[in-house]
Amino acid sequence: MQKILISSCLLGEPVRYDAKGTPLDHELIRLWQAQGRLVAVCPEMLGGLPAPRPCCEVLGQGGGAAVLAGRARVMGADGSDFTAAFIGGAQMVLELARTNGARLAILKERSPSCGSHIIYDGHFASRRIAGSGVTAVLLEREGVQVFCEDELAAVASLLAD
């Protein structure tokens, strides 16, 4: 059975920076949970960060790819550098993908870890830009297809093939 990585916050777990979840109430999520397909992951928590924690954004051009290349940093709104925790957490998620044979992931959009299409611009002014988070980039580089919470139909279509 094809396993699917999913951001823990989308299952309602209080792991976001504000110690809240963003539960995704959808029939496909309930079906995949019942089938035992879902593998919950939170890169930030796996990287050793607590909940709550400072809100973080990628500072510098290039999103998660630039972070992985050492050209950008993941910074907290309080000025703390969380780059190492974000990279470490992404590597742990990749290992979970390998261990579980997961080739699909549903990750929380706009997150500096999990965003697959949109992240924030690094200035903590609620400005969104095109880009991907650290974990999303690392997973895609390793052949895991990454989707956001609005793309469940696309995931279902791949599972049906």
Features:
161 residues, 8 strands, 4-stranded parallel beta sheet, alpha/beta, two-stranded antiparallel ribbon
Question: Can you tell me about this structure?
Answer:
- Helix content is 34%, strand content 19%.
- It has 6 helices and 8 strands.
- The radius of gyration is 15 Å and the shape is globular.
- The mean pLDDT is 97.
- Helix 1 links the parallel strand 1 and strand 2.
- The protein has one domain.
- It has a 4-stranded parallel sheet with strand order 2-1-5-8, with helices on both faces.
- Helix 4 runs parallel beside helix 5.
- The chain is α/β, with parallel strands linked by helices and 161 residues long.
Number of strands: 8
Percent in strands: 15-25%
**Oligomer type:** single chain
| Rg over CA atoms | 15 Å
Helix content: 25-40%
Number of domains: 1
Q: Sheet bearing the most strands, described? A: 4 strands, parallel
Order of helices and strands: EHEHEHEHEEEHEH
SSE blueprint:
Blueprint: E1 4-7, H1 27-35, E2 38-41, H2 43-46, E3 56-59, H3 63-68, E4 73-76, H4 83-100, E5 104-107, E6 118-120, E7 128-130, H5 134-141, E8 145-148, H6 152-160
Parallel strand pairs: 1-2, 1-5, 5-8
Antiparallel strand pairs: 3-4, 6-7
Compact summary:
With 161 residues, the protein is an alpha/beta fold.
